[in-house]
Design a protein that fits this description.
- By secondary structure, the chain is α+β, with helices and mostly antiparallel strands.
- Among the domains are: about 35-75 and about 155-180, Alpha-Beta Plaits; about 80-145, no CATH class.
- The chain has 4 helices and 3 strands; from the N terminus they run E-H-E-H-H-E-H.
- The protein has helices spanning about 45-55, 85-105, 115-140, 165-180, and strands at about 35-40, 65-80, 145-160.
- Strands 1-3-2 form a 3-stranded antiparallel sheet.
- Helix 2 (about 85-105) runs antiparallel to helix 3.
- The radius of gyration is 28 Å and the shape is elongated.
- The N and C termini lie far apart (about 80 Å).
- Residues about 1-20 have low confidence and may be disordered.
């Protein structure tokens, strides 16, 4: 008895950790970016402008990745913390939360319409707890951090990478963009 040779079907094995390697779908785990560099920019805004330009030129932007290189955490100090500022901020955030809770309580009130009682109770309770939590938090860290700040992750430069099949065209298009006068 002779067996006929039939091709075997290969079924791909999938894993929740596998990179689906599909355009437009980011990998599930942190992975280094791939692609060929088609442009490098000093600011994110310039890199974004380059990708926008590629999109306007009907370039397959799903093949493009913007990569921030030489990452830095920049913390800009916005002001000095004082007891007055801490307590005002705590009272304000507590008031918003208390107002929200008070309005929710009116939804379950047996009386029709919005009643002032639950809203006022929620507001006063929220202000009180906001003051207490702010005072305890600031008092426990007193002297260690007496300033407000805003943190931002920035890069030294932003590279635009592209899938190798489209990289040459992308580079040519971005060279056209570089030759244009910049908008003020």
């Amino acid at each position: 008895m002779e067996r006929s040779a039939r091709p075997t079907e290969v079924v791909p094995v999938t894993s929740p950790f596998a990179n689906p390697n599909r355009p437009g779908v980011p990998p599930r785990l942190p992975t280094p970016p791939t692609g060929w560099p088609v442009g490098s920019y000093a600011t994110y805004e310039e890199a974004q402008r380059a990708v926008d330009f590629l999109a306007l030129e009907d370039f397959p932007v799903q093949d493009v990745t913007i990569v921030g290189v030489d990452l830095m955490l920049v913390e800009r100090v916005t002001g000095k913390l004082t007891w007055g500022r801490v307590l005002m901020t705590g009272a304000a955030s507590g008031a918003w939360f208390g107002l929200f809770v008070g309005l929710l309580l009116t939804l379950f009130s047996p009386e029709p319409g919005v009643t002032v009682g639950p809203v006022l109770t929620g507001l006063i309770t929220g202000v009180f707890f906001g003051l207490v939590f702010a005072a305890v938090g600031y008092g426990s860290a007193r002297g260690k951090r007496d300033f407000q700040s805003a943190s931002q992750l920035v890069a030294g430069r932003y590279d635009v990478l592209c899938h190798p099949k489209s990289a040459e065209r992308g580079r040519d298009l971005l060279a056209k963009l570089a030759m244009r006068p910049s908008n003020p």
